[in-house]
Design goal:
The protein is of the alpha/beta class and about 230 residues long. About 35% of the residues lie in helices and about 15% in strands. It is built from nine helices and seven strands, in the order E-H-E-H-H-H-E-E-H-E-H-H-H-E-E-H. It has helices at about 25-35, 55-60, 65-75, 75-80, 115-125, 135-140, 160-165, 175-185, 215-230, and strands spanning about 5-10, 40-45, 80-85, 95-100, 130, 200-205, 210. The protein has a seven-stranded mixed β-sheet with strand order 3-2-1-4-5-7-6. The longest helix is centred in the last third of the chain and has 13 residues, at about 215-230. It is globular and about 40 Å long.
């Protein structure tokens, strides 16, 4: 039986200002392309049902074949998500937990207590925890039962402050992801040499995998697969 991956999408479709947001197309499409031939992918979101996609990502990646194919052929994955709460106590069923990016997670998954509990359970079971771009927002505020940060002492990455600034998102975000990841990890945040370049960080013997931006999504999928197959 193929190993199972639990992919988590945001349920947020708008900023508090009303600007559309959601999950970012290539940050699910590219890892899916890598993982689907080798794993069973189950998709969840805090509210279940349709997980909103950032419409801007569809426009920006309209010439990306992997993203277009995913959009057209895998609609049920993101329109029929299960409620995240249904996966409490089920970490042993899965090989990995993966948080897809897009700015949406900054507003729900970052502080979602159900998500925090599931991350703790996957961690305690020795499973892979992965995230890309703004997806690591889901990791930034997680506390272990001891009270220490889940990513304390770890090397991590996520959407950088300079990238957030470049897309005009700094004033609209509830916090700056790079800043909070660096704080929670104790100075372990790493970024690539340039904005928008691929940068994937693998730590804890392959059990913690993070990617900085959309260009890193394929590499995150590859790192998850490599860690599953070890």
């Amino acid at each position: 039986m193929a190993p199972k991956v639990l992919a988590v999408l945001t349920s947020v479709d708008k900023y508090p200002t009303g600007k559309p947001t959601g999950w970012y197309l290539p940050e699910f499409a590219h890892p899916y392309h890598v993982l689907a031939p080798h794993t069973e992918i189950i998709v969840a979101s805090p509210k279940g049902g349709v997980a909103p996609q950032d419409p801007k990502s569809q426009e920006e990646f309209k010439d990306d074949k992997i993203s277009v194919d995913f959009l057209e052929n895998q609609r049920s994955l993101y329109e029929e998500t299960e409620k995240l709460e249904n996966f409490i106590g089920r970490a042993e069923e899965f090989a990995a937990l993966f948080y897809v990016g897009g700015q949406g997670p900054m507003f729900d998954l970052a502080t979602d207590p159900i998500s925090h509990q599931i991350i703790n359970e996957f961690h305690a079971a020795g499973k892979i925890v992965a995230a890309v771009c703004h997806g690591p927002a889901a990791l930034a505020f997680v506390k272990l039962p001891s009270g220490t940060s889940f990513i304390s002492g770890a090397k991590v990455t996520g959407f950088s402050n300079s990238e957030e600034d470049a897309v005009g998102g700094t004033a609209e975000m509830p916090f700056l992801l790079e800043t909070e990841l660096d704080k929670a990890s104790g100075g372990g945040y790493e970024r690539g040499a340039e904005n928008w370049g691929k940068h994937v960080v693998v730590d804890r013997d392959g059990k913690l995998i993070t990617g900085q931006n959309p260009a890193s999504a394929y590499g995150v999928g590859e790192a998850i697969l490599k860690s599953i197959q070890v």
